[in-house]
Amino acid sequence: MSNTCNQLSVRASSLGELFDCPARWEAKHIRRLRLPRSAAAQLGTAVHAGTALFDQSRLDGNPLSADECAGAVVDALQKPSEDVDWEDTSAAEVERMALPLHGLYCREIAPRQDYVAVEAACESLTFTDIGLTLTGTVDRVRATQDGLGIADIKTGKTAVAADGTVKTQGHAAQLAVYEILAGHAIGRPIDAPAQIIGLQVAKTDKGRRAGVGTIQTARDVLLDDGESPGLLRHAANMLHRGDFYGNPRSQLCNPKYCPAYAGCRWRK
Ligand code: SF4
Q1: Helices (H), 60-124
Q2: 70 ligand 1 Cβ < 6 A
Q3: How many independent structural domains does the chain possess?
Q4: Same domain, residue pair 123 and 60
Q5: How does pLDDT run across 63-116, given as a tens digit for each residue?
C-alpha cells in the first residue's frame, strides 16, 4: 500500500484478504511481514504465466503452441521470483502437475474464448471521494454476445467438481472490483457476466479437470447506494483509520498462511 496526499493506493487483488482478516492484511501490506509462498500458490503463478503467453500470442497474431509456452511454466517453478516453501513436494514434482494443466487449458478452454485483453493492467483507478486508489491486473477480458466480460483463472485441488462445476460462491465482490478495473484499463464498459476458469490440480490425468463457471458480480455492493456505504468505502475507512481487527475464524488463520500468527492477540 502507498499513501499520497491522503489517497491510499491498494492492489485490488489484496482486497479479499482485507475483508477476510484485516489484521493479516495489515501484517502483510503495512508491516511487510512475509512468509515463503506455498507450492500451491507457485503452481498457480506458473500456470498463469504459461497460459497468458499462449493467449497473448494469439492476440498478437503470432500464435505459439502450448509446448512453446511451456517454458514460462517451467521458469516460474525453477526460477521463482520469491522464496517458495515446497514442503513435502519439489519444484520438479509441481512441474509434473502444472505442465499438463497448462496443456489442458490450451486445448479445452482457450479455443472457446474470444479474448480482447490478457493480463489487462490498470495503473490506477482513483475514487477521490473516499481517498482510495486501486491498482492491479485482470486475468482476461473477453468479447461475448452480451458485451465484454472478465475471466479470472483459479487453480486448486478443489477448483472443479467431478461433475465439471466450478465453484463461484464467495467471489462476487472480488470479481466486481476486477470488472471496474478492467473497464477503466481498456476504456470500455464491462457488461457481460464474469467467468471463473477453474483448473483442477491433480497428479493424474483422471483427476485433472478444467471448467468454466459464470457469475453475476456484486458491483452494487461495492459502491455507495445513496443510503448505505459500499464495500470500497468500508475498506477506505478501515485503511485511513488504521483500524485492523483480526478474524481468527478465517480459513487462513494458520501459521502456514499468516505471518502475524505467532504474536496475534486476536487468536486468544
Ligand atoms: S493469526 Fe488469525 S486472526 Fe491473527 S492476523 Fe492472522 S489470520 Fe488474522
Answers
A1: 66-78, 91-104
A2: no
A3: 2
A4: no
A5: 999 999 999 999 999 999 999 999 899 999 999 999 999 999 999 999 999 999
Which residue has 489484496 as its cell numbers?
14
Domain of 105, in residue numbers: 29-112
Mark whether 100 and 137 lie in a shared domain.
no
Report the nearest-CA residue for atom 4 of ligand 1: 264
The answer to whether position 231 is within a domain reads: yes
* Predicted structure pTM score: 0.91
192: cell is 457481460
Cα of 149 vs centre of ligand 1, distance in Å, is 34
Distance 233 CA to ligand 1 centre (A): 23
CB of 233 closer than 6 angstroms to any ligand 1 atom: no
- Report whether residue 18 contacts ligand 1, using a CB cutoff of 6 Å: no
CA 149 to chain CA centroid, Å, is: 16
* Domain-embedded: residue 263: no
User: Is residue 121 domain-shared with residue 140, that is, in the same domain?
Assistant: yes
Shared domain check, 154 and 100: no
Question: CA 50 to CA 53: how far, in whole Å?
Answer: 5
Pocket test for ligand 1, best of 21, 238, 245 (most atoms within 8 A of CB): 21
Residue 220 has a pLDDT of 83
